Amino acid sequence: MSRQPGRNGSVPKKAAYVATVYAHLAAFHLPFMEDLQKAGYEVHAYACPDHRRQEVAGSGFECRDVSFSRNPLSFGNVRAFHSMRSWLKRESYEIVHVHTPNASVITRLAALAAGQRNVFYTAHGFHFYKGAPFLNWLLYYPLERLAARFTDVLITINGEDCRRASRFGVRGRVALVPGVGVEAEAYQTAEDGRVKRLKAELGITGSPLIVLCMAELNRNKNQEQLLRAVHDLTSCGIPVICLLAGTGNMEQHYKRLARELNIGHAVRFLGHRSDGPLLMAAADAVALVSKREGLPKVLLEALSAGKPVVATDIRGCRDLVADRDNGFLIPVGNIPATANALCELYLHKELRSQMGARSREKSGQYRLNTVRALLRDLYDSQLGRESGNSALISFGHSSGREKV
């Protein structure tokens, strides 16, 4: 469909950001959408409505609801395909950037049907990976390989996914971008007074090891492994306080488990929090014991905050944590190894300081401004290829990555 000129006679540039739910866009992508907006693009958001839709709309982006489902076999995805095909035909976007597995496959197929080019896809961690269930490989691997043929830039955020995607036969190219970035300054200023008040509010006295796990409470994030390790520590007389920040469908299960293990005094269920930097400042260590990750933002934040990390030895975590350098990598499900790592951090304060310093050293490449510059370069480069102009044509900024 042809564009209608604006008031000044120019045709407005348009971009689409697509995810299964608005919460994903709100949590990770508003800065990049704002960059496009500042560059003169009208940016539309497509997702299934949820509790964070208003946050996206309130940031100045037109929200268009689409019946994406997290279940790839849901009939709602058929309606979503037809809806996206219709919108893409109508708008003829300069840039379409898709996220999350189901929404990305549906939208890329719709883009093929609509003749839409300049399709970007960020894989936030393929559902198939070394050690993944066979069903994941059976279902998601062929879909991703197929959709790659209709993708102009496939962005990966960890080394394992990048190597795998490079063998997909992508229509355009594969890029490696270090996650969604972190506003590092927010995590590098610790105000002692606020930290003391927070500890008082949480009923933390003395000098226990304060371990922060900031993640959705679900099976994949696997907080049970951490809770059982806390039980082992308290059984040995080691003072520890575990802060669980987040909500999710396993919240009640984990609360029951804490009662059964008799560790209620050592665990704080904090629910959804908007004061992540303050929680990081109060913590002695950050734990993430997931079964699957892409490049976990909470660990990017831990690096910026200069914290030692205890994380499972999985894709994504391995990109951010070097065992016994800036933290510990432990096997999924290994409770003794988890307890031993935390015990070592409790017993050796100097080790905590050394590992925290190494984390901060590693954090430079994951700064938000660095990732913003990389993504702008990818947009500019792709639009230049499509137009036959190798110059930067969409943002008018000087190319080059931020030095870190």
CATH class of the largest domain: Alpha Beta
Number of strands: 13
- The gyration radius over C-alpha positions equals 22 Å
- Stretches where pLDDT is under 50 for at least 5 consecutive residues are 1-9, 390-404
Structural class of the helix and strand makeup?
Answer: alpha/beta
Going by CATH, what is the homologous superfamily of the largest domain? Glycogen Phosphorylase B
What is the helical fraction, as a range of percent? 40-55%
Whole-number total of structural domains: 2
Number of helices: 16
Specify the CATH architecture of the largest domain: 3-Layer(aba) Sandwich
| Adjacency order of strands in the biggest sheet | 3-2-1-4-5-6-7
Listing every helix as H and every strand as E from the N terminus to the C terminus, the arrangement reads EHHEHEHEHEHEHEHEHEHEHEHEHEHHH
Residues in β-strands, percent: 15-25%
What's the shape? elongated
Query: Mean pLDDT, nearest integer?
Result: 91
Query: What is the terminal separation in angstroms?
Result: 44 Å
The major sheet is characterized as: 7 strands, parallel
Indicate the CATH topology of the largest domain. Answer: Rossmann fold
